[in-house]
Amino acid sequence: MSVRIRPDLDRLPGYVPGRTVPGAIKLASNEVSLGPLPSVVEAITRAGTEVNRYPDTAASALVERLSERLEVAPGRLAVGCGSVTLCQQLVQATCTEANEVIFAWRSFEAYPIIAQVSNARQVRVPLTAEYTLDLPAMAAAVTPATRLVFVCTPNNPTGPAVRRAELERFLDSVPSDVVVVLDEAYREFVTDPEVPDGLELARERDNVVVLRTFSKAYGLAGLRVGYAVATPVVAEALRKVYIPFSVNSVAQAAAVASLDAADELLARCQGIVAERERVRSELLSLGYEVPETQANFVWLALGERTEAFNEHCLDNKVVVRAFAGDGARVTVSTPEENDVFLAAARSFLS
Ligand SMILES: *Cc1c(COP(=O)(O)O)cnc(C)c1O
């Protein structure tokens, strides 16, 4: 007799490692291309000398620093092993198998996997023709069984962010017992003044949760640390479903050091924002369909040409993130790396 695995897991894809192309430029995961600052490496090295000890499971030093910086009480913060884990903790904290999680589609790839693994029902609401979240349709999808709505802003992988007026209208129309998660993994790259800071909304409304991460603008993707800002009731629930010690001590030290160096790290993001505008306008002038983006990536709506585009990029030693039949997401990087990608995008058309 073979062991019995949950049959529904058959519907989940097994892990397929990204193709490694020696010497290729990696623009597939929305990382920053520049390595950690010397001060952060130093903090990592120092923390490395104490890894025989378990981490502080409450991540007190990090929570205290975040509390000061964001001006929110420590009781309203929860940390996680990357904000993707906080997405899972949120579903676990709010849903049973009778409940529904709503999210846009296409959006962050982790949402459907998390909903299924956590045994919640999932409701996917199609994006608009402009690749933005269709908030009125998402509000209309709420039923008495709904416990959680993921609002990914800017939306991964398409790029647009939700503006203040439409978000407030949406929040007004969602019942206040439904948790609305503003997944702001790319917040530091937002330049549109009409895009609200989720923290302001979380201060005013008890059902709003903001997720942020050190993986993107802060350049710590390999260390896995993110955080949630929520009402104390939700933050406490997140801490209850937290796997003990899952934010490791090296990650905690690196996150604190990154907050110390925030000015320098966020200045680097401004260079990426400038490049984003250049990359997008170049792609538009080549004739690609590229939605407006507030993140550190662009979306090429390629439809059936996606796989051919992906192969062409790989042949040109550029790794992008292709979603077969739909489009490709490409990280905005340094001017030199972006030029290599743009050359590939140009030669694809010839
Ligand atoms: C990258 C990303 C995250 C989280 O990344 P972690 O590395 O787990 O912190 C969360 N949400 C979205 C939409 C992302 O793109």
TrEMBL record:
Superkingdom of this protein's organism: Bacteria
An annotated Gene Ontology molecular function: histidinol-phosphate transaminase activity
Segments forming domain Aminotransferase class I/classII large: 25-343
Annotated Gene3D superfamilies: Aspartate Aminotransferase, domain 1 (3.90.1150.10), Type I PLP-dependent aspartate aminotransferase-like (Major domain) (3.40.640.10)
Reported cofactor(s): pyridoxal 5'-phosphate
Reactions mediated catalytically: an aromatic L-alpha-amino acid + 2-oxoglutarate = an aromatic oxo-acid + L-glutamate
Pfam family, one: Aminotran_1_2
Keywords per UniProt: Aminotransferase, Pyridoxal phosphate, Transferase
Gene Ontology biological process terms, A to Z: L-histidine biosynthetic process
Keyword presence, Nucleus: no
Secreted in keyword set: no
Modified residues (N6-(pyridoxal phosphate)lysine): 216
Signal peptide boundaries: none
Membrane-spanning parts: none
Enzyme Commission code(s) on record: 2.6.1.57
Family: Belongs to the class-II pyridoxal-phosphate-dependent aminotransferase family.
Protein role: Aminotransferase that catalyzes the conversion of aromatic amino acids and 2-oxoglutarate into corresponding aromatic oxo acids and L-glutamate.
Assembly: Homodimer.
Name of the protein: Aromatic amino acid aminotransferase
